[in-house]
Structures are given as C-alpha cells and as structure tokens.
Write a structure and sequence with these properties.
Helix content is 29%, strand content 24%. It has 14 helices and 21 strands. The longest helix is centred in the first third of the chain and has 21 residues.
Length: 478
C-alpha cells in the first residue's frame, strides 16, 4: 500500500473495506484496483460502473471454503460451502466460484440457468425459494439439481410429483425457522416464525413424515438461515442446538440417522471503517461453528452429520467497487439539533451534498435497509480539510442516498470520480431502471487488465422494451 489508512483520512483507502488490491498510484495518486486506474475504467466503459476484483473474489472464496472445510474435518465430518447466487451472479462469477470449489445456491429459474450455462455440475447446486413454480421445480429435477430446499408443505407434493415423473429420487432439505433472531436489520433476520421463509421447527416431524411417504424423495436434513450481515456466532450456537435437538426424533421417522445439516451463514462484512473491527476472521468463525456442532452432537448423543454453509455476501461483497462521476455539489447548513444530535456530525456546521450519476437504481440497499457505505475520490488526492458529505443519486426520491455520511476533501467537485467500497453483493442484483436509468455494466479486473462480464444497458435497450400496437386485441365475451 502507498498510504497508511485511517478512518479519519479522507484520502485513505482502507484495505478492510475496499478490495485488498485497491491503492493509490505512487506518482499519479489515483486509485487503482488490481493495477487498473479507476479513471481508465470510466474512460473506457462509462460511468456509473460496477467493478469486481476477480483475484480478490477468488481468494476470498478459497479462504472461506478452506476454513469451513478444514474445521469440519477437524471434528470428523465434511462441509459443503455454497456461494449465494442472489448476492451477485453472472456466468463468469459462477465459473470463478465453481473453480474455487464452492457449490452454488440459486433461488430462481434464471439463476439456475446462469449456473448451468457456466458449466456448474447440477449436483452441486441447491435450489432455494419460497415460491418455486412447478416449471422451475420440474426443470431443477430434470437437470439433476443436487438439493431442493422445501419451503412449504405444498412443495413436498410438487417436488415428489416432478421427481416421480422424471423417474429419479430427488434429494431435499426442509427449511425451518429455529426462532433464533440474528442481530441485524429486521428485513435481514430470517429465522423468526412470522415471515415468508421456512416453516416452524415444531412442524418438522409431521412434514418429514409426509416427505418419507414419497419414494421419489430423499430427506437429507434441515436447513436454517438466521439472517444476514452477522458478526457473532452466538445465534448459530442456539440455532444448531435447537435443530440438532430434533434430529433424534426425525431419525426415528426416517428410519435412519439424518445425514446433513445446513446452518446457513450470512457472515457480515465491513461496509465502513467503523465496522471493520467488529468483523471476525473467517478462521475464527469456522472454528467456533465446528466446536458448536461437535459439542452439541456429543451432548445430544446423536450421529455427527455432514455440514453445509452459505456464507453469503462475505464471499463477494468486499471485492466490488462502484465508480461514479460527480455532477453537482451544494452545502446545506446543519441546524443546531442536527449538528449536535449525531456524534459523527459534531464539529461540522454544514453538510456537503455530492450528487452522482447513479443512485438507488444501482444500489438500493441504503433505501431498503438504511445501509451505509464508504466513499473516496478516486481520480486525485487533496490536502484541503475534510468536509462532512452525503453522496446522493440523481433519482426523484429524497431517500436516494448512496453514502449517508463520510468525510471527503472539501474541494470535491464536478467531474471527480468517486469510488464506493464493498458493493460486490446485492447492488447489481437489486438494480432497477427507475426513472428509465440504464443499468451499468460490470467490469472484472485482474493483474492490470479489465474485461466486461455483464453488458450495460442503453436508453435504446429500455425503449425497445416498450410495445406499441395499432389496436387492442379482442378478448373473450361472456
């Protein structure tokens, strides 16, 4: 690194938040990602622009997989690690994850199609979703998807029928809610009972009885996902205790030990320097999870199952950066209550609003979850004292905020390139065409080179979706 990074340095690039390869050039002082200047990327591909550091993504995928599999082997079992397709999926990324030994978790027919085109072995795909269509189920069964996760009683019959028709035995897991709440945003906590995913754990015995009635289904275990952006393992401990506590009864129903347990994952990442110290090392998470499992099965006196994990955004999130171009800036005076009401705003009499050429159409997370991000000027450094900034988008919504609060040099100005860190997960995948704004392309960088891995849209693409007709077609008359 060419800079020492601190949270208070408005020019600093924190390697705990940005991709590890992000740094300032020695002479130009411009931000480079994997050896490619941010300004060069904008000149070549336009702005806004999603950038994914392939080397960093692969290294993180390998690190997470090896840690979880190593610790599982230590306690005498195996682990499958799934990459969450919903975080960010395209053909190249699916190939990267497959080559790094991760299985792929999909939640729609479209995500399944991408994984198949990428050459992922269908046996290493898990199919999630609370409303899988009959057509999606039939396709998953026909191509040989390794595991379908049942999310409702209706799906038992649908998957059984599809498997019977195809003449195969389909492996299934049952998604249950352990009642353990992750310490996260309400919309990210997915194991309380009053929500759309899964079924109450107390219903598992009756549901497993229904599953084992079907010769075309093989029940392999329970699945539970307690939430996302999780920094601690305490919730996993209690969730595992509750899930495994049912395995004795389920084994009697199934007539054999239950072979697998999917504990989910949802490990958190640092979106800002202020969060970085709270993020545990993946080695520590893996060791603690393995200890939780082995201690629990010993306490319950049951067989040790094979394990599965879904680390979520922690695999791809930090590898992504979004580049924007500043359009306008304006200073807004902070009222006394505003200036004194938030410790992070103290000492500033005004907030500088920095408007960029993207916004909630390319990053919906701040509007959805109140998520915050870190931003840096990518095309230069400045010795001008720091200003309190809020980076906002161009959309007609007051909630169109990209970065709620950060410090930038006070001379940030139109034409500057801004880099927003940790946008590899749930940014492109949640993007929209609000206000008829085209989605940006996704560019992969590695070893000083760049390539497009998702084509961006143009206004012509959006207009072409509109269908005009000379007249309405007649409908049936009653």
């Amino acid at each position: 690194m060419t800079d020492e990074t601190t949270a208070a340095d408005p020019n600093g690039i924190d390697p705990r938040v940005f991709p590890p390869t992000a740094r300032r050039g020695r002479e130009c002082r411009q931000m480079k990602i994997a050896g490619v200047r941010a300004t060069e990327l904008v000149e070549r591909y336009g702005s806004p622009l999603y950038v994914i550091d392939e080397g960093s993504a692969r290294a993180r995928a390998r690190e997470v997989r090896e840690a979880l599999q190593r610790e599982s082997a230590r306690i005498g079992t195996e682990a499958t690690v799934y990459y969450a397709g919903k975080a960010f999926l395209c053909v190249d990324v699916a190939r990267w994850m497959d080559e790094e030994g991760l299985a792929i978790d999909v939640a729609s027919g479209g995500e399944l199609a991408v994984a198949l085109v990428a050459g992922v072995d269908p046996a290493r795909i898990g199919f999630h979703g609370n409303n899988k269509s009959v057509a999606e189920i039939e396709r998953a069964v026909s191509v040989g998807v390794g595991t379908i996760i049942l999310d409702s009683p209706i799906e038992i019959e649908r998957v059984a029928a599809a498997a019977s028709s195809a003449g195969v035995v389909q492996r299934v897991r049952l998604r249950v809610n352990s009642g353990v709440h992750a310490s996260t945003h309400d919309f990210l906590a997915t194991s309380h009972e009053d929500q759309k995913f899964g079924l109450p754990l107390r219903a598992a015995p009756d549901l497993v009885r229904e599953i084992v009635k079907h010769d075309s289904l093989e029940f392999v275990g329970l699945h539970c996902h307690i939430g996302s952006q999780i920094f601690a393992t305490e919730g996993f401990r209690e969730s595992a205790r509750r899930l495994l506590g049912s395995y004795g009864e389920l084994a009697k129903i199934a007539g054999r030990p239950i072979p697998e347990l999917n504990l989910g994952g949802g490990f958190g990442i640092a979106y800002t320097s202020a969060q970085a110290d709270a993020v545990p090392a993946v080695d520590d998470i893996a060791r603690e999870l393995a200890d939780i499992i082995v201690d629990t099965v010993a306490e319950l006196g049951i067989d040790l199952p094979k394990l599965a994990f879904e680390p979520g955004r922690s695999v791809i999130g930090q590898s992504g950066v979004t580049l924007y171009t500043v359009g306008t800036t304006k200073a807004v005076e902070l009222a006394g209550s505003d200036a004194g009401g938030d410790p992070e705003d103290l000492g500033f009499a005004e907030r500088l609003y920095v408007s960029v050429d993207g916004g909630m159409s390319d990053n919906a997370r701040p509007a959805l979850y109140g998520a915050d991000y870190q931003v840096r000027i990518a095309n230069r450094v400045s010795d001008v004292p720091a200003a309190l900034v809020r980076v906002v988008g161009k959309h007609c919504e007051s909630g169109d905020i990209v970065v709620q609060r950060d410090l930038l040099p006070g001379d940030v100005r139109p034409g500057d390139t801004l880099a927003v860190a940790a946008t590899g997960a749930y940014c492109w995948s949640l993007s929209s065409n609000y206000n008829y704004v085209p989605r940006p392309p996704v560019i992969a960088v590695r070893d000083g080179q760049a390539k497009m891995i998702v084509r961006g849209e143009t206004e012509a693409d959006l207009i072409a979706k509109s269908v005009t007709s000379a007249s309405y077609e007649n409908g049936e008359q009653n």
